[in-house]
């Protein structure tokens, strides 16, 4: 379980997206407003972004976001037009380590998972995963099958584990993809870009909630939302 955020648009600082909003990921790490499972997100955090050359860069930690003074000092000068960030609440029994914090990457996409899934249904991904946690195994499975098959992959995983919660958020520098499957997601489309977030980071009236079992795609052309066919 976690809270995550994605941005696609004009370059913005990481601090603008994560630390400065009144209810941003920093606040969500200790006082989320809409989290259905767990009370806080103190088991690590991570941020990934694409640099001017389109290379994916990451900073991940196993410590609470509110306690990382070095990140707070650097975040205002880190800027990108595509960002994926998350704060983590570890599932009981899962390790707490930097490699267990999203975003995960295949070198082209940055991906976060908000939810839980039985690792047994993902055991074939173990050799490719960055960590033994369920989210890393799920990310490896998604990367292997390709993000264009995201909806199909999630339907297959849910068929194997009907109790799975599968909110995904992924970006590749020019595109964001996100799903709702058992938890919350909201979208804010502004003049300079689009935010996808587990919950609104401020009280802007333009935030829209995404219905459950939906896929959202954000590109330079705008926001497209579609139901995940074949789901209940």
Automatic annotation (TrEMBL):
GO molecular function annotation: hydrolase activity, acting on carbon-nitrogen (but not peptide) bonds, in linear amides
UniProt keyword Flavoprotein, yes or no? no
Q: Which reaction does it catalyse?
A: gamma-L-glutamyl-hercynylcysteine S-oxide + H2O = S-(hercyn-2-yl)-L-cysteine S-oxide + L-glutamate
Concerning Pfam families, the annotation shows: GATase_6
Keyword list (alphabetical) reads: Glutamine amidotransferase, Hydrolase
- Its Gene Ontology biological processes? ergothioneine biosynthetic process
Pathway listed = Amino-acid biosynthesis; ergothioneine biosynthesis
Q: Which SUPFAM superfamilies match?
A: N-terminal nucleophile aminohydrolases (Ntn hydrolases) (SSF56235)
Q: What sequence ranges are listed for the domain Glutamine amidotransferase type-2?
A: 2-232
Q: What is its EC number?
A: 3.5.1.118
Q: Which InterPro entries match?
A: EgtC (IPR017808), EgtC_Actinobacteria (IPR032889), Gamma-glu_amide_hydrolase (IPR052373), GATase_2_dom (IPR017932), Ntn_hydrolases_N (IPR029055)
Query: Which top EC class applies here?
Result: hydrolase
Q: What does this protein do?
A: Catalyzes the hydrolysis of the gamma-glutamyl amide bond of hercynyl-gamma-L-glutamyl-L-cysteine sulfoxide to produce hercynylcysteine sulfoxide, a step in the biosynthesis pathway of ergothioneine.
- Protein name listed in UniProt: Gamma-glutamyl-hercynylcysteine sulfoxide hydrolase
Q: Look up and give the organism this protein is from.
A: Mycolicibacterium thermoresistibile (strain ATCC 19527 / DSM 44167 / CIP 105390 / JCM 6362 / NCTC 10409 / 316) (Mycobacterium thermoresistibile)
Gene expressing this chain:
egtC
């Amino acid at each position: 379980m976690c809270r995550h955020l994605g941005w696609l648009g004009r370059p913005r600082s990481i601090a603008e997206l994560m630390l400065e909003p009144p209810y941003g990921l920093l606040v969500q790490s200790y006082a989320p407003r809409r989290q259905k499972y767990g009370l806080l997100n103190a088991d690590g955090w991570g941020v990934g972004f694409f640099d001017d050359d389109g290379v994916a860069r990451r900073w991940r930690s196993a410590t609470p976001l509110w306690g990382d003074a070095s990140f707070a000092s650097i975040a205002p000068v880190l800027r990108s037009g595509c960002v994926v960030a998350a704060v983590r609440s570890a599932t009981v029994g899962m390790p707490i380590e930097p490699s267990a914090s999203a975003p995960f990457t295949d070198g082209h996409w940055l991906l976060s998972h908000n939810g839980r899934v039985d690792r047994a249904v993902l055991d074939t991904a173990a050799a490719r995963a960055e960590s033994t946690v369920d989210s890393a195994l799920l990310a490896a499975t998604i990367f292997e099958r390709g993000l264009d098959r995201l909806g199909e992959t999630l339907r297959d995983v849910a068929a194997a584990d009907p109790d799975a919660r599968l909110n995904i958020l992924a970006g590749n520098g020019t595109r964001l993809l996100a799903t709702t499957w058992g938890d919350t997601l909201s979208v804010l489309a502004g003049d300079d870009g689009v935010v996808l977030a587990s919950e609104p980071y401020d009280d802007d009236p333009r935030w829209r909630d995404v219905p459950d079992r939906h896929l959202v795609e954000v590109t330079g052309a705008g926001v497209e939302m579609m139901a995940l066919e074949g789901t209940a």
